[in-house]
Amino acid sequence: MPVTSAQRSAGLLVVAALFWSTGGLLIKHIDWPPLAVAGGRGLFAALFLIVAGRRWSLRWTRVQWIGAACYATCTVAFCAATKLTTAANAILLQYTAPVWIALFGAWFLGERATRLDWATIVAVLGGMVVFLANGLSVGHLLGDTLGLIAGLGFAAMTIALRYQKDASPLDCIILGNLLAFVVGLPWIVDAPALSGSGALALVTLGVVQLGIPYLMYAYAIRHVTALQAVLIPVIEPLLNPVWVLLALGEKPTPLALVGGAIVLAAVTGRSLFNLSRRTARRPDVRETVVLLHGLGLGGWAMARLARSLRADDYRVINLTYRSRSMPVEQIGAEWLPAQLRRHGIDPQDPAVALHCVTHSMGGLVVRRWLQQHGAPTALRRVVMIAPPNHGTALVDRIGHWLPFRWFTGVNGRRLGTGPHDVPARLGPWPAGPELGIIAGDMNLNPWLASLTGHPGDGKVTIASTRLDGMHDHIVLPHSHTWLQYRREPIAQVHTFLRHGRFAQ
């Protein structure tokens, strides 16, 4: 059975944790203050990643700078925390990062923490307390605060890297290391000259302890959730006693062994559960989902859905098309097939697993594609969100108004309910691909709702969304424009793509 990208990424995170865990042993050989060490290793890590990545592009985007600043905050605050509080306190507080990601991941990434995730977090933190019990102490307010800031920085960095996974997370990591170097530069200038072994340890710290694992991390973050990206590497502090045992012969305490076993069991159990679930669902291929937005919108309107699907290991192609200037017939018959070819998808390849998820007029684009080319072998399932399959009475009422025609372009006035309008000429749903339809029944604009008819989402009636040949249909309490952005519809999309039916 082939190894999936998610399985490969989980393995890389484990290896990255192994490399990260060498830090404590290497730092002992460097006679510099902590911030000087943080800056020096940041410089060597950045140089290595630039060479290994073969390119570095400073994009000047807000998310890249936020991620880099959070990375630098994490590394510098942790180094300072280890100086001002116990190492155990600093480690435990840094690994509060899963809590912050579980709290904010749904908001920024659309990656909602499950009950299993929260149970794993509780088990991990409990195991860490047991593991570090002999070194934990109170009375170090400033150091403990810096440790907590390091945890927040680690979480925010991971969210930022995950957010830009389709750009280049590695560029952000390189910039973060350079920022850490700038922060540590004053301490480097005042630090004494290093011995030969100290200089070797600093270079090793930058290349082996930071550079190589973050090269792996930049790849892995594309294929795992932000929470997985911090829960799996939490085994890092557990490996420190192994290095100490090998190098100095110092045995870990019984409490450390018990705590380590709890953390390992929690992280391993959760990872195996998630990976086995994905393997059972998609044993042979990584499925591709094509997203098509509605009239007057763009790919940005499907971004939250795209992030959620990618987190579930789908390959997602979030397309933006000229919905106001290109006729819907041309979009479906010519433009969409060309985009599939451009992304390397052969719709007639039986080894390909292709799905489509559409919003509003995007559903008509898919219908036109199938009408023109027939149902392709690769197309397995289609989810239409608020599709005007029988047109909308709103166009019948105000489609001739000049502001409406200006705003909706060439397609808006052709989406009515008449026999010559586009929806009526697209034909029935073909045999083969399974079709699920999500409709809304919340009207936020009473005036538009009065023109459209009831019940409906304010622009399309529930009856108009239905289509002969559909496999399932569900009505949710949301309005038309942002139906595809809400949590419940996104969950229903996942369910239909997985099982061919909605969760009723």
UniProtKB/TrEMBL annotation:
<feature type="domain" description="EamA">
    <location>
        <begin position="142"/>
        <end position="268"/>
    </location>
</feature>
<feature type="domain" description="EamA">
    <location>
        <begin position="12"/>
        <end position="131"/>
    </location>
</feature>
<protein>
    <submittedName>
        <fullName>EamA family transporter</fullName>
    </submittedName>
</protein>
<feature type="transmembrane region" description="Helical">
    <location>
        <begin position="65"/>
        <end position="84"/>
    </location>
</feature>
<feature type="transmembrane region" description="Helical">
    <location>
        <begin position="36"/>
        <end position="53"/>
    </location>
</feature>
<dbReference type="Pfam" id="PF24096">
    <property type="entry name" value="DUF7379"/>
</dbReference>
<keyword id="KW-0812">Transmembrane</keyword>
<dbReference type="InterPro" id="IPR037185">
    <property type="entry name" value="EmrE-like"/>
</dbReference>
<keyword id="KW-0472">Membrane</keyword>
<dbReference type="InterPro" id="IPR029058">
    <property type="entry name" value="AB_hydrolase_fold"/>
</dbReference>
<feature type="transmembrane region" description="Helical">
    <location>
        <begin position="145"/>
        <end position="163"/>
    </location>
</feature>
<dbReference type="Pfam" id="PF00892">
    <property type="entry name" value="EamA"/>
</dbReference>
<dbReference type="GO" id="GO:0016020">
    <property type="term" value="C:membrane"/>
</dbReference>
<feature type="transmembrane region" description="Helical">
    <location>
        <begin position="116"/>
        <end position="133"/>
    </location>
</feature>
<feature type="transmembrane region" description="Helical">
    <location>
        <begin position="170"/>
        <end position="189"/>
    </location>
</feature>
<dbReference type="InterPro" id="IPR000620">
    <property type="entry name" value="EamA_dom"/>
</dbReference>
<keyword id="KW-1133">Transmembrane helix</keyword>
<feature type="transmembrane region" description="Helical">
    <location>
        <begin position="90"/>
        <end position="109"/>
    </location>
</feature>
<feature type="transmembrane region" description="Helical">
    <location>
        <begin position="195"/>
        <end position="217"/>
    </location>
</feature>
<feature type="transmembrane region" description="Helical">
    <location>
        <begin position="229"/>
        <end position="249"/>
    </location>
</feature>
<feature type="transmembrane region" description="Helical">
    <location>
        <begin position="255"/>
        <end position="273"/>
    </location>
</feature>
<feature type="transmembrane region" description="Helical">
    <location>
        <begin position="12"/>
        <end position="30"/>
    </location>
</feature>
<dbReference type="InterPro" id="IPR055803">
    <property type="entry name" value="DUF7379"/>
</dbReference>
<feature type="domain" description="DUF7379">
    <location>
        <begin position="306"/>
        <end position="397"/>
    </location>
</feature>
